[in-house]
Design brief:
Layout (H helix, E strand, L loop, with lengths): L7 H18 L12 H8 L8 H7 L6 H13 L4 H29 L7 H16 L1 H6 L14 H18 L4 H17 L1 H14 L8 H22 L8 H11 L2 H4 L12 H22 L2 H27 L3 H6 L8 H13 L4 H4 L7 H17 L4 H8 L1 H9 L5 E4 L4 H7 L4 E2 L12 H12 L2 H5 L6 H10 L3 H10 L4 E5 L13 E2 L3 E5 H7 L1
Parallel strand pairs: 1-2, 1-3
Antiparallel strand pairs: 3-5, 4-5
């Protein structure tokens, strides 16, 4: 069996490094976008929580696919008799410990299908190093397009879905003949799609590509994989969570991909984790896939040539389809999937191709070291997880204390108050920590019924794409901030005539438009004004 040659020492190293990075750098589950469902969890336990908050109402009152993940967390909280944040934190710890192991095993099994078993020791150091370096955010950022990184660990539907998908691949690779393993694998693929349809689809696509040689030989399984792993969950989600108001293609594409997720889905505005254009990352990944193609052609390595060519084509098609079905032939279904997200698998495809290419380097086997402590390893991983869970942080208290004076003031306002907040973290923290509604916040309502209303609200405070493009700035966040800073008291009064709006939070350094009015609260960061004071002045 291939798995008997796995170097458990390397697995231990990966888990340890990942866990230490979490403890030192990311010791919390209160991070965006992992907590965008926080209002949903709070509303579940308190029907009066943020009663006038648009996002909370849009997420909680009308069914949407994100409920599946939401109730997954709530269900676990009930089973373990704890709160939703402890579950989210625990889930992140589990992902931190297990995800690098899952990647290692998936890469190992896939590569082992293309090389002689005698070379399995040669490749493991390559896999270890490939995963270790991508754990570093700046390296991971180099291999990302439109912000979609190949490696980041948050307790999000995307990462949970990915973990299920990777585990499904591992189970299938361990035993192709067992009906039990087949069933378990298909179940996990299906769970991955239920939690996040796009990721479920892309994991399946990735698995199909690396198994191009065996599709016809195992046609029943791969048909079942498509039907059970993707088609059935998508149909169920569509039937159960079909929106009351279904937007036409143009409106959907405009609001979802151009106005609100442009850096993710609109090629013209693709975001990047580097100081350079996303095209540099595109070029880097294209070159790194081209080299094994050239090498395999020269060395007449047919399987590597075909595999890497498929990798390169799928990578290019992901970007091309994103452009074509958004800008040229807008398609609602494809826009919602976001083909460019598939590029987060490109780094792993590069690793597979290069590992196969370098597998003949015999000296790598001499650097391979395995301490043979499987049971100890499992114990350490378990204890690490326990320690991580026990040391759960309290972001509500931590963030509250950082701006205690502001939150103490917010506590004095009516529980039904609505705040207009400048572009920054406070539009997330005021509803989650301060427990007061915001006019429009970070969260996007993934129910078409609310798309247009969300866009109206967002445009009022932070501008639409056309307005933002006219403002000077180095990045879109800077332009949005400037748009808000231009607003006057009269502007917020006019909004309050159509919507419930009670307070406006402005940056202290950019409050000149509010001269002549006394803030209800002021500190070194912000000033908070009451809308009724503006009305009375008239």
């Amino acid at each position: 069996m291939k798995y008997k040659n796995i170097n458990f020492t390397y697995l231990f190293i990966l888990s340890t490094v990942s866990f230490l990075w979490f403890v030192v750098k990311e010791h919390t589950a209160y991070d965006w976008p992992a907590i965008d469902m926080m209002p949903f969890f709070e509303r579940y336990h308190d029907s009066g929580f943020l009663i006038n908050d648009f996002f909370t109402n849009a997420t909680s009152n009308e069914s949407n696919p994100r409920w599946l993940f939401g109730y997954f967390i709530i269900g676990l909280a009930k089973i373990f008799h704890t709160d939703w944040y402890t579950i989210s934190y625990s889930l992140k710890v589990i992902l931190v410990i297990l995800t690098p192991i899952l990647y290692y095993l998936v890469l190992y099994f896939i590569v082992s299908n293309f090389i002689h078993k005698g070379k399995l020791k040669n490749i493991q150091l390559i896999l270890l190093l490939a995963i270790l370096i991508v754990m570093y955010p700046k390296i991971s950022g180099l291999f990302s397009i439109a912000w979609w990184k190949p490696y980041f660990l948050q307790a999000t539907p995307q990462n949970v879905s990915l973990a299920f998908g990777l585990l499904a691949i591992i189970l299938k690779e361990v035993n192709w003949k067992s009906n039990y393993y087949n069933f378990a694998s298909l179940s996990l693929f299906s769970a991955a799609t239920f939690i996040h349809p796009a990721i479920g689809l892309f994991v399946i696509c990735f698995y199909l590509i690396v198994n191009y040689r065996s599709i016809l030989k195992n046609i029943k399984f791969f048909i079942s994989l498509f039907v059970v792993g993707f088609l059935m969950p998508v149909i169920v989600i569509k039937v159960i969570f079909s929106p009351e108001l279904s937007l036409n293609t143009i409106d959907f594409v405009n609001i979802y991909t151009i106005e609100n997720h442009s850096s993710h889905y609109h090629l013209e505005n693709f975001g990047t984790h580097t100081p350079f254009s996303w095209l540099y990352s595109f070029a880097l990944m294209s070159i790194l896939l081209t080299i094994p193609i050239v090498y395999s052609y020269i060395k007449k390595m047919k399987n590597l040539l075909i595999l890497t060519s498929l990798f390169l084509v799928s990578f290019l098609l992901a970007v091309l389809c994103q452009y074509v079905f958004i800008d040229v032939l807008p398609n609602k279904i494809i826009a919602s999937i976001g083909p460019v997200r598939f590029t987060q698998f490109t780094y792993w495809m590069i690793v597979i191709s290069w590992t196969i290419m370098l597998s003949n380097l015999v000296f790598l086997s001499k650097l391979n070291f395995d301490l043979k402590f499987k049971n100890i390893y499992l114990l350490i991983v378990f204890l690490g997880g326990v320690i991580g869970v026990v040391s759960v942080d309290n972001p509500k208290e931590f963030i509250y204390q950082k701006d205690k004076d502001m939150y103490e003031f917010i506590d004095t306002t009516g529980k039904d108050s609505v705040f207009a907040v400048y572009f920054g973290n406070f539009k997330l923290d005021i509803p989650n920590i301060g427990k007061r509604a915001v006019f429009v916040g970070n969260g996007f309502p993934f129910n078409e019924t609310y798309f247009k209303e969300y866009q109206k609200r967002k445009s009022l405070l932070y501008g639409n794409r056309e307005q933002i493009d006219k403002i000077e700035g180095n990045w879109v966040g800077e332009k949005i901030a400037k748009f808000f800073r231009q607003k006057t008291p009269d502007y917020f009064v006019n909004i309050s005539k159509k919507y419930k709006l009670d307070y406006v939070v402005v940056e202290k350094n950019f409050s000149s438009n509010f001269k002549g009015f006394s803030p209800k609260f002021e500190n070194e960061k912000v000033k908070i004004y009451k809308i009724s004071d503006f009305k009375e002045s008239k």
